[in-house]
Amino acid sequence: MIALLTRDLKLAVRAGGGFGLGLAFFLILVALVAFGVGPESALLARIAPGILWVGALLACLLSLDRIFALDREDGSLDLLATAPLPMEGIVTVKALAHWITTGLPLVVAAPLLALMLSLPGEGYLWLFLSLLLGTPALSVLGTFGAALTVGLKRGGLLMSLIVLPLYVPTLIFGAEVARRGAGGLSVEVPLLLLAGITCATLALLPFASAAVLRVNLR
Amino acid sequence: MKSIWEYANPKKFIETSQALLPWVTGLTVVCMVVGLVWGFFFTPDDYRQGSTVKIIYLHVPAALMAINGWFMMLLASLIWLIRRHHVSALAARAAAPIGAVMTIIALATGAIWGQPMWGTWWVWDPRLTSFLILFLFYLGYIALWAAVEDDDTAADLTSILCIVGSVFAVLSRYAVHFWNQGLHQGASVMRAGALAGDTEERVSNVFAAPLFLSMAGFVLFFVALVLLRTQTEIRARRMRALMARERRG
């Protein structure tokens, strides 16, 4: 499993576009929103948690098709399937690799971008924490979507249609934590619910992802 | 004793549903016509809502079927995954567009009712939002069926999507509730005492009977459409198989 993880990470770094692209997209998105709604900092500060959460979600979505598509093209996915590793393990490692290459940089970069959107001071910690807690769920859910559409020629758009509704609960609780944090309110309830969603998806969804991957490799 | 799984045989299913269909269709027509005509023309206007209250005879049954349609798909998907009956997978496929249309009807009638009552076509109310999300789930499900070429693969994938989607649809429903408390009134139709005592915030007797009739009508309508569409799917698949055999010569 560790070998697979390091392989995926190396591929992401060396093939280019793994770390950088998602981040660049995130930055552009935030800039575009600022252009769209105007430079008024009070307004930007108010919508900053939401923008950053939606931005992280879209940046995550954009890199999902890389999870399985390349491996399927060159046949290494079939090799992985016949390896002694259970399929559930493979999809979990894949999701973890996706999180490290996409989710983690977003989490680290988010406070910086929040600065550009003039988020109030109390909000940074909660924004960081909520993204740290929430992005693994996004990666795991995305892996499910990627596994579902891996056999399709043009699965990208279909995958967005399937994955985005699944992101709704995570987005709601995550953005709520960040918003309440920025407003100086108690964040306990949404934070716990967000953590609950992440734990549940981490525990249960790999079984579904592995099942659909098996069907697709039949 | 006959087992219910006999109807998993496509031939048997077609025979039985063929025999049932006229009855179901007839009952549907009776229930819907009586329920809707009674509801639209022979109930008094509500003292606050005027005649707009009558849209309830379309709105509530459609919403009912939008949710239960997905539930039926979930059951059919489980049966397919566990017992591998093709009819079951096809029934789930047949039900999806009907459920999606029911969701649209519920949203549209709700908007038409909401405009004079709440003064807005759309609010980000929990119920409205969860219905929108449900509609998106229907769309994803239908799109996945259409995108996968191999029938059995498509059935497997959509079944698993349906199960995962069910969990997330329920989760979204509660998440959305947390996110925004809404304008939409609670379910007042089935509330205890809805048919007897005169409590506040319930559908009163005058409106209840035609409402139940049109709800029954919508349920039967859904059943009839699913039976018919499943038959069509079975025949289409059989036709494809025959054509493929002929090509092979």
Automatic annotation (TrEMBL), chain A:
MF term (GO), any: heme transmembrane transporter activity
Membrane topology summary: Multi-pass membrane protein
One of the GO BP terms on file: cytochrome c biosynthetic process
Top-level lineage group: Bacteria
GO CC terms: plasma membrane
Location(s) in or outside the cell: Cell inner membrane
Record keywords: Cell inner membrane, Cell membrane, Cytochrome c-type biogenesis, Membrane, Transmembrane, Transmembrane helix, Transport
Membrane-spanning segments: 12-37, 43-64, 96-119, 125-150, 157-178, 190-213
Pfam families, per database record: CcmB (PF03379)
Alphabetical list of PANTHER family matching this protein: CYTOCHROME C BIOGENESIS B-RELATED, HEME EXPORTER PROTEIN B
Function: Required for the export of heme to the periplasm for the biogenesis of c-type cytochromes.
Family note: Belongs to the CcmB/CycW/HelB family.
Protein's name according to its UniProt entry: Heme exporter protein B
Organism annotation: Pseudooceanicola marinus
UniProtKB/TrEMBL annotation, chain B:
GO cellular component, one term: plasma membrane
Subcellular compartments: Cell inner membrane; Membrane
Pfam families tied to this protein: Cytochrom_C_asm (PF01578)
TM region positions: 20-43, 55-82, 94-116, 128-148, 155-176, 207-228
Membrane topology: Multi-pass membrane protein
Protein's GO biological process: cytochrome complex assembly
Highest taxon above the source species: Bacteria
Protein's job: Required for the export of heme to the periplasm for the biogenesis of c-type cytochromes.
The protein, known as: Heme exporter protein C
The organism of origin for this protein: Pseudooceanicola marinus
Lineage, uppermost ranks: Bacteria, Pseudomonadati, Pseudomonadota, Alphaproteobacteria, Rhodobacterales
Gene name linked to the record: ccmC
